[in-house]
Design goal:
Belongs to the cytochrome P450 family. It comes from Actinomadura decatromicini. It holds the Pfam family p450. InterPro entries: Cyt_P450 (IPR001128), Cyt_P450_B (IPR002397), Cyt_P450_sf (IPR036396). By secondary structure, the protein is α+β, with helices and mostly antiparallel strands. It has a single domain, classed as Cytochrome P450 (Cytochrome p450, Orthogonal Bundle), CATH 1.10.630.10. It is about 45% helix and about 10% strand. It has 17 helices and twelve strands. α10 crosses α11. The two termini are about 35 Å apart.
Length: about 400
C-alpha cells in the first residue's frame, strides 16, 4: 500500500460509511471501523461502553491469554488508574520540562554525528537514535544498551514486517508464542532484561522509572506482580521509542515535501509549538486502537452489538474534513488543531504526550537552522503494518547552512 492509499480510503469511508462493518475474510469475527473524529472521540472517552479490557489490537485472544498478556493498555477502571498513576507524575508537562537542557545537549550530539555525512538514513541516524536515548535516561540504563532497546521495539511492534519480525504474526509458528505480547519471542528478551534491572533497583532509593515501579506500591494497594512488571516494562520500551521516532520521520518527510513550510519555521521559530501539533496530526504514528462493545449501542446510525470489536481509526479522524479545513494540506500554522494523535481526553490518553511534544519541538528547533537544504536521496521504505504508521528507512542528502 502506498503512502497515499489509506488517506483516500479513509476519506471515502467518512463520506459513505463512517461507521463501517468489516467482515473477516475467513468468516471469523469482523469489526466496526470508526472513521469520523467525533465518533472516535466519543468512543475513546466512553470506557463503560467501549472497553479496552478485551485487548486493543485486532488479534483474537482467549481469556487465559488476556490474563497473561494484559498491560495497562488493556485495563479500564480503578486498576488502570492505579497503574497509570505509578508513573504519571514523571510525564507531566512540568516534570518533562526538566529534561529540556538534557534534550538540547542530546539533540546537538545526535545532529553533530549525523551531519558529518552528506547523505545518510534519517531514521537510523536521527529519528531512532534520539528518543531511545531519552528513554534510556529515564530508565537509567547504560548508553550502550540503546541499540538493544531499538531492536526489541522493531521486532515486537512490527510483527507483520518480514524485515523485523522473528516470527510473523499470522504464521503457524506464531502459535508457539501466543502467550507473549504481539506473539513476539523478542518479548522474552525484554522481560529478562527488565527483571535484571528490577532486581538491582528493588529496595533502593533511585528515582528512575524502574525504581519507582518496584519500590512504590500502586494507589489501590495491590502490588505489582512479576507479570505486571514484565508487561509494564515492555510497554515503556515499545511506546517510549516507536511512536516518537515515526512522528519525527514523518515530520521531516513533510518538511522535505513542503519546503515553504520549513522556510516559515526557519524565519519564525516561534511557530514551532504549533507546528509540532501539525506534525502529529500529519504523522498519526498510531493508526488505530481497538475497543470492544460492552453492551448494545448505536453510533452513526449503525447498531453495534455487545461483544463487537470496534476500531478507532485515529489516523482517519486526523484528516476529518468536518474538523480540519483542507485536511490534506500540511500547514505549520494550522489553528485550531484538534488532532487525536494521542487520543482525546479519554482514560487512555497517551501518558508520554508532553514528553513527545518537547522532544519534537527541540529536535526541529535545533535541526532546521543547521540546514540550507535537505532532500530525499532514495525512496523511503515503510514499516509493513496496519497498526503503526512507520518509516523504517529514509535516505536524505543535506547541504549545511
Amino acid at each position: 500500500m502506498d503512502g497515499e492509499t489509506p488517506w483516500r480510503m479513509f476519506a471515502e469511508l467518512r463520506r459513505a460509511a463512517p461507521v463501517h462493518w468489516n467482515p473477516e475474510p475467513d468468516g471469523g469475527r469482523g469489526f466496526w471501523s470508526l472513521t469520523r473524529h467525533a465518533d472516535i472521540v466519543a468512543a475513546d472517552r466512553d470506557a463503560a461502553t467501549f472497553t479496552s479490557e478485551e485487548f486493543v489490537n485486532l488479534e483474537e485472544v482467549d481469556e487465559r491469554q488476556a490474563g497473561i498478556r494484559r498491560s495497562m493498555l488493556e485495563m479500564d477502571g480503578p486498576r488502570h488508574l492505579a497503574l497509570r498513576r505509578l508513573l504519571s507524575r514523571e510525564f507531566t508537562p512540568r516534570a518533562v520540562a526538566g529534561y529540556a537542557t538534557f534534550l538540547r545537549g542530546l539533540t546537538a550530539r545526535t545532529l553533530d554525528a549525523a551531519l558529518t555525512a552528506d547523505t545518510f538514513d534519517f531514521v537510523a541516524e536521527i529519528a531512532a537514535d534520539f528518543p531511545i536515548n531519552v528513554l534510556a535516561r529515564m530508565l537509567d540504563v547504560p548508553d550502550g544498551d540503546t541499540r538493544k532497546l531499538i531492536d526489541w521495539g522493531n521486532r515486537i511492534i512490527a510483527n507483520t514486517d518480514p524485515d523485523y519480525a522473528d516470527v510473523l504474526l499470522h504464521s503457524a509458528e506464531s502459535e508457539l508464542y501466543r502467550d507473549l505480547p504481539f506473539r513476539s519471542p523478542a518479548s522474552l528478551e525484554v522481560f529478562e532484561y527488565g527483571r535484571e534491572l528490577a532486581a538491582r533497583r528493588r529496595g533502593g532509593t533511585g528515582t528512575d522509572l524502574i525504581s519507582r515501579l518496584v519500590n512504590q506500591p500502586p494507589a489501590d494497594g495491590v502490588p505489582l506482580s512479576e507479570r505486571d512488571f514484565d508487561n509494564y516494562f515492555l510497554l515503556l520500551v515499545v511506546a517510549g521509542n516507536e511512536t516518537t521516532r515515526h512522528a519525527v520521520t514523518h515530520a521531516m518527510r513533510a518538511l522535505i515535501d513542503h519546503p515553504d513550510q520549513a522556510e516559515r519555521l526557519r524565519d519564525d521559530p516561534g511557530l514551532m509549538p504549533g507546528a509540532v501539533e501539525e506534525f502529529l496530526r500529519w504523522a498519526s504514528p498510531v493508526y488505530h486502537f481497538r475497543r470492544t462493545a460492552t453492551r448494545d449501542t448505536v453510533m452513526g446510525g449503525a447498531r453495534i452489538r455487545e461483544g463487537d470489536k470496534v476500531v478507532l481509526w485515529f489516523a482517519s479522524g486526523n484528516r476529518d474534513e468536518n474538523v480540519f479545513a483542507d485536511p490534506d494540506r500540511f500547514d505549520v500554522t494550522r489553528s485550531p488543531n484538534d488532532h487525536i494523535a494521542f487520543g482525546k481526553g479519554g482514560p487512555h490518553y497517551c501518558l508520554g504526550a508532553a514528553l513527545a511534544r518537547l522532544e519534537m519541538r527541540i529536535m526541529f528547533e535545533e535541526l532546521l537552522p543547521r540546514l540550507a537544504d535537505i532532500r530525499l536521496a532514495g525512496e523511503p521504505r515503510r514499516v509493513r503494518s496496519n497498526f503503526v504508521n512507520g518509516i523504517k528507512e529514509m535516505p536524505v542528502a543535506v547541504t549545511l547552512a
